[in-house]
Amino acid sequence: MADTESKIHGEWSSRFAFILAATGSAVGLGNIWKFPYITGENGGGAFVIVYLLCVVVIGIPIMMAETMIGRRGRQSPVNAMKTLAKEASADSRWQYLGWLGVIAGMIILSYYSVIAGWALAYVLKAISGTFMDGSAQQIGGLFDSFVKDPGSQVFWHTTFMILTMLVVVRGVQDGLEKAVRFLMPSLFVLLILLVGYAMNTDAYDQGLSFMFNPDFSKITGNSVLTAMGHAFFTLSLGMGAIMVYGSYLPKNVSITKTAFMVAGADTVVALLAGIAIFPLVFANGLEPSTGPGLIFQTLPIAFGQMTGGVIFGTLFFVLLVFAAFSSSISLIEPAVAWMVENKGYSRLKCCVFLGSLVWLVGLGTVLSFNEWADITILGKNIFELLDFLTANLMLPIGGLLIAVFAGWVMKRQHSQDELQLNNKGLYYCWIVSVRYVSPIAVFLVFMHVIGIL
């Protein structure tokens, strides 16, 4: 494919810039907010092993496939899928796979922004010493009163969305690239500082044991689905982000090497987050399976009791904001890219329209914690429903279809040209994975969960 379409959006200045951006997309709230609490809910070490297997066996091959499709298409996910389907003489309806990713990304950002708004608010609470000497009841009450106040949540949700769009509107090199060049190194430094503190707590060994000593009796079909869904969620697969970032990737960059590096960095961050958080949870006699409020209800108690709690509490929530920010800019970029290509609008106009739409949908998540708390669909409030639909259904289905398209629909010569795997053995390992292993694994997990297997 020609690179003419990339000129509409720009290109990453280097392979390192792409790695930072893709890692920034992958490393987000999923690693630091979501991974610890779903690990706590699913029994600890056994869940971690299942998650790591999902990353290696399913995640990395599909990340390679999605990056490859993006670079070959050189357009937004919708137009890239349409173009490559035509190139392969396949059904034009493959473009709806691109739409699935674009819509999933926007839905995720709608509730992602609300949670990121919590982190922004908690940065100020930590700086002001609000958590100091607070009891579990007081800290829990603080969180409950915060989420039950729709006005406060709307303010912080709005603030985070505005910050996100200010970066996206500047484009690839001036916006996305400059942001991740600052955010990613800062995030790693902050996380290492918190791990260093956790190592000095009395419950450090207990935290490691919880994470790395597996009890497979605690693994269920739903646990496997959650682990697989989280592998897609945390690697930003199936939501169009990696595909559109791949469309900005220079031709001379190795897709295979970058996919392994991004997945490796993402997994390290998730594990480090658990290593930093669980010792603090256990050291204060707290419950690791608290749920989505884990880091907002339990960790402030720990920060309030520890020496230097104001500093470490502030660092932690700044880290959380950085992680959220590095991912949020990638969640809406596929939709912005499509509007720029198809409507001919400026990035500013696209960002204002799409940002406002996502903000509006996010109000449903805000209200699900207060005014609409009693409104449930399939036993889930709006936030829980959106999280389940995207992480556990839309992303795995999108990933499965990406694997099918890359492995069965694209011409082998085209995938070989993009992947540039000189070792035929490595290419055949990849083609077997995307043709058979990944699709079958996703399909079997779904069949088990719905009760057929």
What distinguishing features does this structure have?
453 residues, Amino acid/polyamine transporter I, disordered N terminus
Short synopsis of the structure:
The chain is mainly alpha-helical and 453 residues long. The chain has helices at 6-9, 15-26, 29-41, 45-73, 77-87, 95-127, 136-147, 150-168, 172-198, 204-212, 221-234, 241-246, 255-283, 294-297, 299-305, 309-343, 347-368, 382-409, 412-419, 424-449.
Instruction: From the alpha carbons, calculate the radius of gyration and give it in angstroms.
Output: 21 Å
Number of helices: 20
In the predicted model, the low-confidence regions spanning at least 5 consecutive residues are: 1-7
CATH architecture: Up-down Bundle
Q: Span between N and C termini?
A: 42 Å
Shape: globular
Q: The CATH topology is what?
A: Amino acid/polyamine transporter I
Structural class of the secondary elements? mainly alpha
Total tally of structural domains: 1
Number of strands: 0
Determine the mean pLDDT. 84
Order of helices and strands: HHHHHHHHHHHHHHHHHHHH
β content, as a range? under 5%
